[in-house]
Design a protein that fits this description.
The protein has 456 residues and is an alpha/beta fold. It is 35% helix and 15% strand. The protein has 2 domains: 140 residues, Cobalamin-binding domain (Rossmann fold, 3-Layer(aba) Sandwich); 291 residues, tm_1862 like domain (pyruvate-formate lyase- activating enzyme), CATH 3.80.30.20. The two termini are 36 Å apart.
Length: 456
């Protein structure tokens, strides 16, 4: 049997090794051939033969996010038109399984560990989706959430391209208790923490390269577990980057243990510099009055900060954009990402905006160039046109040459990212702001992805 896994592309695709592929391959029986294609690296031509060797697989699997949905469905439809069985999984079809089933023979709802071998066996016997319950014969789902203990090591041998950013992705925890209105993590992974045993994580880290990207939504999610893990990591001498919540970063002992373990940069969801705004979306752990102090503390321990901010929240006004850029300059953030608020299906935000009649394109993810039409809802404090125009100006202001110069201070930030990569990264972000954000160059990221941080 031949199983072909495909990572669907979209205009925001990043050149990061997809952990879901390595995970599914590790859960595939050894007598089944597994191949992989990254649509972002090698685009599929759905109008022609889908396999360059002319050989069609027995089963195709795709993981679908909202921003890859249109492309994933096109690929799935093309394979099914050629008689190939298709199974879809991922956060988007978990939220919208009925939509996913319009393009697949079966859907994996939620996490695939423990389900994937059954999917393979059903496909091998020609009974894909036919042996499930009568209520949902084409859905494979867990009762509850699977354990993270004794998982097989991901199969990273499938990642042969040198175009990927040189980081190996490792995951240690799942689940998130924070009720952020616009986030779908807790819907997909649950509202309680699940942890991989530290010994299992260390065993995996011993098999990967010197640079690691933790795939956790919050790498300092539970102090006792995180301290145990990071103390065990320190002798490995890895350099790593990750996402982290602000909830634990005000404590210097948490920052110190991350630094000892090799942390070089954190992606932090500040979301807004306004107290009222962060509280309104459920981010009670964010305290804007503490932002500058936290950034400085991280910098003093050699950890650069890539800040994430969301524009278009209900409390945002036209003045919010300028205040946000001012904060980024004042705190000397190494980088910042400005996102337009996006109503992802399955989130409380989507349901609320739908109930309030504020969605302008309820199935925005089916557009071929969905980013060009954003925002997909009516903001409260400004028009959609003003929101988008102000978002563009914020990107340009953040990555103007003057802003880049003012944010640089080698005496302030002692991380290697700041001291060695700050100027190349920020000059490339300047180009992204002007060409992609302001100029609408859809091919920019595809041409320059290798040069941008984490393949942005």
């Amino acid at each position: 049997m031949h199983v072909h896994l495909i990572a669907p592309s979209n205009e925001d695709s990043t050149y990061i090794k997809p952990l879901w592929v390595a995970t599914l391959a590790a859960h595939t029986p050894p007598d089944v051939e597994v191949t992989f294609r990254d649509d972002g690296l090698e685009p599929l031509d759905v109008s022609r033969a889908l396999d360059g060797a002319g050989r069609l697989p027995d089963l195709v699997g795709l993981s679908v996010t909202s921003k890859t949905a249109a492309r994933a469905y096109a690929i799935a439809d093309a394979y099914r038109a050629r008689g190939v069985k298709v199974v879809l999984g991922g956060i988007h079809v978990t939220a919208l399984p009925d939509e996913g089933l319009e393009h697949a023979d079966a859907i994996v709802v939620g996490e695939a560990e423990g389900l994937w071998p059954q999917v393979i066996e059903d496909a091998r016997r020609g009974k894909l989706g036919k042996t499930r319950s009568l209520a949902s014969p084409s859905l494979y789902r867990h009762e509850g959430f699977p354990t993270l203990e004794n998982l097989p090591l991901p199969r990273r041998d499938l990642f042969t391209s040198r175009r990927y950013v040189p980081f190996d992705v490792v995951q240690t925890t799942r689940g998130c208790p924070y009720p952020c209105e616009f986030c779908s993590v807790s819907t997909y992974n649950g509202t309680t923490f699940r942890f991989r045993p530290v010994r299992d994580v260390i065993a995996e880290l011993e098999t990967v390269g010197p640079r690691v990207l933790f795939g956790d939504d919050n790498v300092m999610v539970h102090a006792r577990y995180s301290h145990e893990l990071f103390e065990a990591m320190a002798p490995l001498k890895k350099s790593w980057v990750a996402q982290a919540s602000l909830a634990a970063l005000h404590k210097v002992e948490n920052v110190e243990v991350m630094a000892r373990a090799g942390c070089k940069a954190l992606f932090i969801g500040f979301e807004s510099v306004d107290d009222t705004t962060v509280r309104s979306v459920g981010k009670k752990q964010n305290k804007p009055s503490k932002y500058v102090e936290i950034v400085r503390q991280l910098a003093d321990h050699g950890i650069a900060v890539w800040g994430s901010f969301v524009f278009g929240l209900d409390e945002d006004t036209p003045a919010s954009f300028e205040r946000t850029v001012e904060f980024c300059v004042q705190s000397k953030l190494t980088m910042a990402l400005f996102a337009l608020l996006t109503p992802y299906p399955g989130t409380r935000l989507y349901k609320r905006l739908e109930a309030e009649g504020r969605l302008t394109k309820p199935r925005w993810w089916l557009e071929s160039e969905h980013d060009a039409g954003a925002p997909f809802y009516v903001p409260k404090q400004m028009s959609r046109e003003v929101l988008r125009a102000s978002w563009v100006k914020a990107w340009q202001a953040m990555y103007s040459y003057g802003s880049i110069a003012r944010r640089f201070d080698p005496a302030f930030d002692h991380s290697w990212i700041q001291n060695l990569a700050y100027w190349p990264i920020n000059l490339l972000m300047h180009e992204l702001a002007e060409r992609k954000i302001a100029g609408g160059d859809r091919g920019f990221r595809k041409h320059r992805a290798l040069d941008l941080p984490f393949g942005l």
